[in-house]
Amino acid sequence: MTAPGAGQPRPALAAPVLPAFVGRPTAGPREAASWTPRQVIANNLRSVVGRAYPRIRGLTREPSWVLFEMLLPFLTTSSFVFVYRALDAPQAYIGFVVLGGAMTAFWLNVVWMMAAQLYWEKDQGNLELYFAAPMNVMSVLFGMAVGGLVMSSTRAAVVLLVATVVYGVTFSVSQWGLLIAVFILTLAALYGFGMMLASLFLMWGREAWHMTQLMIEPVYFVSGLNFPVGRLGLLGAVAIALIPLAVGLDAMRQLAFASTGVTGTPEPWIETLILVAMTVIFVGLARILLHSMEERARREGRLTVRWR
Amino acid sequence: MSGSIQAPAIDVRGITRVYKARPKDVIALAGIDLEVAPGEFFGLLGPNGAGKTTLIKILTTLLLPSAGTARIFGFDVARETKQIRRIMNMVAGGEQSGYGILEAREQLWMFSQFYGLGVREGWRRVDELIDAVGLGEQRNQRVSTLSTGQRQKMNFARGLLNDPWVFFLDEPTLGLDVSAARAVRELMVGWRAAVPGRTVLLTTHYMAEADELCERIAIVDRGRILAIGSPAELKRRVQRESIFRLELDRLTGGPASLARLPGVLSAVAATPVRADANSAARPTVAINLVLHQDSALAGVVAALDGLDAHIVALAKSEPSLEDVFVELVGRGFDDEGDPEQPPRRAVEPHEAGQPEPEEANR
Question: Among A100, A106, B31, B97, which is least packed, fewest CB within 10 Å?
């Protein structure tokens, strides 16, 4: 078989020694392979920024996301607002729905752009480049999370602001500091959960994808995105113990609408502790799973999809 | 870490790799021994399914061998992955890595961050490499709009971001047109020549590409190395007769008149080199001459006077790497063959895995 252009009458291949090809001189390969702890940390932090970059850059490149990520979710939230208005529900319920609508952005982002992302990266050929690079692949997951947070926060903020203004939601915040802490912890636990799912995708690929798809609506329901989770009784309690979206949303509702006195769920400070525990557990599990899944994938040949 | 500064760039001992599959397991590598010296441009030549990519995946730490060991500059591919990943890089043909939404420059910068370059250093290096690979005009073009050739140049630039000491190239010119393939080959040669010690492992099923670029080649088929040597050494293995291409202004009596001469095994008419349609050059008579040995040529040349023929051109023909492959495997490169059939010529320990040309030439 003939390579394109090879073997035909031709001048000898030119070998220009360009400055770019000289690169960063090191004494030898062994010196180049020996990194200080500082270099390792810097590489990992830069990798977070590097992986977050395409997501953040993408916000300005394809404005169509404004329609899909903001307008459509706003319509969904609005439909619940009108249902509650038609039923003459307390005004606080409108606030609950608006807050739930805002938090939907983060959950969808976690499912589609965190959990499923490694599956797509594998399909695209990026996954093996990530693993073949010197950084810790957890940095890639963190980068995906940071990029996703920026995207989702924009969407959530717009839904929250527009819906608040349009539907006249009144907040009665009792503890601003705790509310902000709960919001941050909710995101940390949610994205930690997404990182853990992403690790599982390394092994179960398509099956994990289907599993995650199956999780979307049930999680919406048990998290009480459009109603107070306390109304679910025992099921709600289980959700609070296991699903970061459920516990975070409930704590934020209690703190943002303190005067409504909706009860039936743990106090916000208890839910804050649950979120802290979830964050530690999910991120820790993600790290362990990613490492063990990488080893298993290397052993079983799942980082690559073909052989020649 | 083990090994010394003189450690081979690539050292593979008894590597096997079996993929679990139904109805039966696939043996991708069946006991590979290989040693590549620092600074060498080494080629793995074999058809699809030979095991070339599997070997590259193992050497780039993406796949564990089922048995055997492999080291890159003394670092074990199974255990010392971080060290290896700091000094190697890889580019595959048809690679679609990255994100189409980014510009070429941005995509390269993103990858520079994964390889440990600082933020500013990354941009500087990206700009250098973009110019070096000839993508200056496309630097701000979205990746999704680059042509196949441009994309492969960008991939090549990505592979050089961390100044690797070992560069794995897996069919890098696959699907490229003539000029793009040539540009990529020139980049490979230019990059390696810039710093002594840089090592390239190229897999290809393009024989001429391997012949043109590689100092040594391992011919691989069905997970085994059948032979290792320089292209010239490999070709000499199959050259048992001397073959010349003779072009004469005329030949009374035709090729048969030469076939009768002492030491001539055969003389067969060949297609003359076509003259340009507008050229005034006279037509010639081309003959493929197979001699028992080179010395018989003198008798042929002496006999031409008597046949009223004058030499227009004379060239010695060398066998191609394809001839070597056919000799070793018993089938052509593009023939599927019977996977159950062993290679025509069994692997012998002295042929595979020996780095010294003298040994490889046995």
Answer: B31
Residues B212-271 pLDDT 10s: 899 999 999 999 999 999 998 888 877 777 888 899 988 888 888 898 899 888 888 877
Assign residue B272 the CATH number of its domain. Answer: 3.30.70
* Contact residues, chain B, for A38 at CB < 8 Å: none
Chain B hits for A29, Cβ within 8 Å: 9, 38, 73, 87, 165-166, 197
Instruction: Please name the member of B101, B204, B206 whose beta carbon is closest to the beta carbon of A58.
Output: B101
**pLDDT tens for residues A32-76?**
999 999 999 999 999 999 999 999 998 888 777 777 777 777 888
Q: Do A51 and B86 touch (CB under 8 A)?
A: no
Core vs surface per residue A86-109: b (16+ CB within 10 A) or e: eeeeeebbbbbbbbbbbbbbbbbb
Joined tokens for residue A4: 């394109």
Q: Which residues of A touch B173 (CB under 8 A)?
A: 3-4, 6
> For residue B5, is it within any domain?
no
**Nearest residue of A to residue B94, measured between CA atoms:** A125
A33 contact residues in B (CB cutoff 8 A): 73, 75, 83-84, 86-87
- Reference B95, options B3, B197, B173; nearest CA is B173
Whether residues B200 and B291 fall in one domain: no
Nearest chain A alpha carbon to B333: A1
Of A33, A51, A307, the CB nearest to B83: A33
Q: pTM of the predicted model, to two decimals?
A: 0.80
Question: Distance (Å, rounded) from C-alpha A200 to C-alpha A98?
Answer: 32
CATH of the domain at B120: 3.40.50.300
A29 with B182: Cβ contact below 8 A: no
Which H, E and C letters describe chain A, residue by residue? CCCCCCCCCCCCCCCCCCHHHHCCCCCCHHHHHCCCHHHHHHHHHHHHHHHHHHHHHHHHHCCCHHHHHHHHHHHHHHHHHHHHHHCCCCHHHHHHHHHHHHHHHHHHHHHHHHHCHHHHHHHHCHHHHHHHCCCCHHHHHHHHHHHHHHHHHHHHHHHHHHHHHHHCCCCECCCHHHHHHHHHHHHHHHHHHHHHHHHHHHHHHHHHHHHHHHHHHHHHHHHCCCCCHHHHCHHHHHHHHHCHHHHHHHHHHHHHEHHHCCCCCCCHHHHHHHHHHHHHHHHHHHHHHHHHHHHHHHHHCCCCCCCC
Would B284 be classed as within a structural domain? Answer: yes
ipTM exceeding cut-off 0.95 for this assembly: no
In a domain, B2, yes or no: no
Q: Which residues pair with B90 in a beta bridge?
A: B168
**Closest chain A residue by Cα to residue B98:** A126
> Do both B166 and B27 map to the same domain?
yes
